[in-house]
Each structure stands twice: as structure tokens, then as C-alpha cells.
Amino acid sequence: xxxxxxxxxxxxxxxxxxxxxxxxxxxxxxxxxxxxxxxxxxxxxxxxxxxxxxxxxxxxxxxxxxxxxxxxxxxxxxxxxxxxxxxxxxxxxxxxxxxxxxxxxxxxxxxxxxxxxxxxxxxxxxxxxxxxxxxxxxxxxxxxxxxxxxxxxxxxxxxxxxxxxxxxxxxxxxxxxxxxxxxxxxxxxxxxxxxxxxxxxxxxxxxxxxxxxxxxxxxxxxxxxxxxxxxxxxxxxxxxxxxxxxxxxxxxxxxxxxxxxxxxxxxxxxxxxxxxxxxxxxxxxxxxxxxxxxxxxxxxxxxxxxxxxxxxxxxxxxxxxxxxxxxxxxxxxxxxxxxxxxxxx
Length: 345
What we know:
- By secondary structure, the chain is an alpha/beta fold.
- The protein has helices at residues 68-71, 103-116, 129-140, 158-165, 173-180, 191-199, 208-226, 240-258, 268-271, 293-302, 321-337, and strands at residues 30-35, 41-48, 53-58, 79-84, 122-127, 145-151, 280-284, 307-310.
- It has two domains: 9-156 and 264-337, 3-Layer(aba) Sandwich (Rossmann fold); 159-261, no CATH class.
- α6 packs across α8 (240-258) and α7 (208-226) crosses α8 (240-258).
């Protein structure tokens, strides 16, 4: 769901040095501006070996945008990595747009990307909301999915969303109090509703400062919960350009979350039994405070052919050494053997 990706735009990385074991950062080999219906233009990047194993990388959010970190889990000599900034996110245009921006449209966009790039099948990897979208995509275009790698999966249920936005005893009471202080006292029981109503207002000179203040509060709260290198340091604040990118990101994110990502009729869990029987691995930390471990367990129970591996201590942080190592090991195994390794619980 909700994590500050490393890299460009709203996802710029501002933490400590990333862990060793990642593959070197390199510029994309090709970039594409793909026009899709209703005036959206998707930013698509290709990296790695053009003749390698095709892999689609789905960023989180919704609305966060792709980042160089997410492709550094892949061996560039073995994979052709395709990263897509979803509608309204990252370097796609118009940034922050919510019109004609729903999950069904994202799924059709991914099919269009695949067809434009002449990819018959691809490994689909995603983290947080990206893992959610990967599951939905596997049901939408099952014949195109060769494998699924799902990090810190998010379930867009009322319970999971409310658990993020509302105070939970013992979690981070001081941080939540600072977060809630941006809302009037009589609206703090519904922080998502308050934020969505405010951020969905068309940006103007008069409300720009309010939008930035709300985005900063949301960012601080989620980074506190994410932990690891994602946690904000005292005295470090996003610059103005990044704040404006965060406003656009949270406009998209609140638009999706207030509608449960349009994956509740039927619930996403009830769709999983029909997914293709392909290598599937979930990586999750039991101490993830953004996307709770119960979500990974629930998905694993429905994916009888899937594996679940606990990566404890990583929280919701893809750059945590344990999570980064687990991602790299899983993808190396898939590149060599066509599977993610030994079954785990």
C-alpha cells in the first residue's frame, strides 16, 4: 500500500545507504510515453537485457510511481525489467489525475503495455499496493502471467484501511496524535474521509498550503509505521517540489482507498482461487505495521500453490537488508531454475 519508494518524484529516497547485495543502479535502456484512453500518458521504462526474462514491476501507493530501487532486485544480465508508472503517478501525465483512474483501467493499461512491447508472458512483481494490483492482473490476464512475486501484500478491505488510518493502542500514539491534529476533532474518527475530501478539491492558490500540510502529515505517519530506512529523521523534511509531488500522490491514493480500490465486489480474496497455477511467492514481515501480516496469511490460504516466507524485522521497508536480500534471492532462483526455491510456510 503506502510506502515512499526510492527514486524519482514523489518516491525520492532520503534514507541511509541502501543495503549491499542489490544489483547496480543503471539508467533505463528505453523509455516510452504510451498514450492510453481518456488522455492519460504512461511513463514506461525498460532496463536489463532486452533478450532476458520479461518482468513487470508494479509500484505501490496507489500513486507512488516507480523507482530505480525496485529494478535493482533483478539481475540485469538475466531479466528484461519493465516498470510502469500507473495513471496519475510518477512521471505519467497528468500527474495526480483521478478522472478515469480506477483499477479496471490500470489492468487494461497493463495489457496495452504488454502488447505494445510484444511481451507474450512476464513475471509480475509488486510490493504493497503493487502486490494487490499484481493479483488483480493475474485474474484479468492469466495467460500472460508466468510467475508472481508479492512483497508486503495489501488487502483493500475496510478493516485493513481503517487499521492504517486509525489509532491502534500501543502502535505509535504520539505520532498518531500529530497526524490526527491536522483534522478537526470531530472528524478524526474518519481520517481517510477527511483527507480524501480535502485532497480531492481542485488545487488552487488558496488551498495549496493546506494540501501540502496534509500531505506532509500523511507522509510522516506512514513513514513512522513503515520503519527501517523509511522512518523520517528529526529535522529532515521534504523539499517544496517533493511536497507538491506528495500532494498529487495522496490525491490518487485517497481516491483509490476511499473506494476500496474497486476490489470489493467480489472481494479480492474470493477471486484468488481462479488465478493461474504459476510459481507464486509472498514475502512479508510479521512486524509490518502498514500492511499487516494477517493479509499475507489470508492470501496464502487462498493460493494453495503459493509460498509464504516471513522476512522478520523488515517492517514495510523494501530497502531493509533482510527484505532486499530475500527479493534478490527469490529472483536469482527464478532466473536459474524457473521457481522461487524451497517451499516455506
